Design the sequence.
């Protein structure tokens, strides 16, 4: 399914009969494509790909789940999550600018796949971003809401701005020997992180 670069709102769910089939492409442009609904049926029956082309600063917004194996953007393009209930991203995200929330909505997004070489991430006030796999940003990570880094995952960014947000690091010890790999971790080149904003969330028994 190919969209041109006109501004549009797409309402309804996209589903596929077979897992890892079906692609959506959005042509290069400066307009907004708004998805109101889910892409893909579930984590076990997902679309193959969502590709946003070119470098003209496309904006893609979504209020639903992205059950898509691979999402690819240009570094100038923005993928913005603005739902009012829990949203899941099941697959990988490569490149692009990410945004969670609009400053007022209690947007809550779980990223289950690896995020590679994304440019920036902005977690707005009242919003929550949850990372269950590694997430790497080549630019700034700004957190005015809540950021959760799951056990074994690392959030990496060139810089970090703590704009009154909170950070929760997950811990799960599966073998009775607690190591650094059991913790969610944050790795940044330049940080302005108030440790009072950091808490630990333990799953199961440690030690």
Sequence:
């Amino acid at each position: 399914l190919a969209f041109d670069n006109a501004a549009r709102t797409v309402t309804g769910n996209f589903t596929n009969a077979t897992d890892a089939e079906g692609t959506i492409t959005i042509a290069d442009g400066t307009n907004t494509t708004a998805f109101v609904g889910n892409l893909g049926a579930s984590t076990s029956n997902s679309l193959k790909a969502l590709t946003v082309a070119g470098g003209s600063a496309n904006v893609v917004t979504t209020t639903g789940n992205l059950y898509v194996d691979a999402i690819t953007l240009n570094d100038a393009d923005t993928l913005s999550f603005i739902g009012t209930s829990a949203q899941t991203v099941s697959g990988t995200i490569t490149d692009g600018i990410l945004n969670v929330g609009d400053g007022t909505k209690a947007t809550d997004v779980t990223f289950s796949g690896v995020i590679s070489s994304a440019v920036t991430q902005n977690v707005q006030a009242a919003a929550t971003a949850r990372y269950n796999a590694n997430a790497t940003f080549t630019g700034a990570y700004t957190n005015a809401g809540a950021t959760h880094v799951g056990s074994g995952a690392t959030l990496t960014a060139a810089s970090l701005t703590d704009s009154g947000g909170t950070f929760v690091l997950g811990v799960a010890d599966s073998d009775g020997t607690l190591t650094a790999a059991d913790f969610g971790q944050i790795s940044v080149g330049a940080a302005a992180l108030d440790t009072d904003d950091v808490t630990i969330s333990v799953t199961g028994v440690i030690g």
